[in-house]
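Section 3.1: Structural characterization of target chains.
Under the original work plan, the team committed to producing a structural model for every single-chain target entering the pipeline before any wet-lab resources were allocated. The record below documents one such target. The sequence was received from the expression subgroup and is listed exactly as submitted; it comprises 262 residues.
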Amino acid sequence: MTSPERFDELSAGLADGVRAHPDLVGLVLLGSASDDARDRRDEWSDHDFFALTAAGRGPEVRPDLSWLPDQDRLVLTAREGEIGFVAVYDDGHVFEFAFSDAAELEGARAGDATVLVDDEAGTTARLLGESRARAAGDDRFDPVNDTRLVLVKLLIGVGRVRRGEVLNGNSFIRQWAVQLLVRAIRGRFAAASTPLRDTIDPMRRFERDFPTWGADIAASLDLPIEETAFELYRLTRRILEPGWDAFPSTAADVVAMRLGWS
């Protein structure tokens, strides 16, 4: 478990490392690592952040992670895509971060965030403002379309499983159908989503806003794969269909017929 003191020390160490590096110009702490959301931190909280390089310097600077604090305690670093990185310390604490210039983060999204380091032009603050605006735009759902897609993913996923493509079928059922069902619920019952929600990932803290439905969906994932699919289908109809004329009831009946679900 990372103590509050250790967490703050790592934040300060990050800021010091960015300030000392000639090609780094900005640092934004995201999510529970930020000052805005420090009251959400618990033993599983990690450091999410953007580390900004000078314009055009990303490709050359990225191989060097010597600016990360406590180098002697790092046990693992890895890349996720071109600009994403992770680092793990000997106490299990995790850094997840994008390491790039502002142009490479053009499509980034951010919610709770704190700028710790910026250049004189305000590059980091400007990036954060644009990222927050994109996240706010994404925090809207189309429950009609998302519900239709739940049914499609379940139909395709069960078909893949029955064909013998169990790994692929699992991704359709336990990943895509679940994510879309969560989105559909958040869209259908938008007033029930509290300010604690994550404006970037609708799955985050879903159980806090919808504790009963969250528990039901989670329990369905412990079942064998076809039973999981059937239970997700039943939950989709039980939660979303009553009193909602836009629910695709005919399509849901067709999916059940095709899969032999009575």
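The chain has a mean pLDDT of 86.
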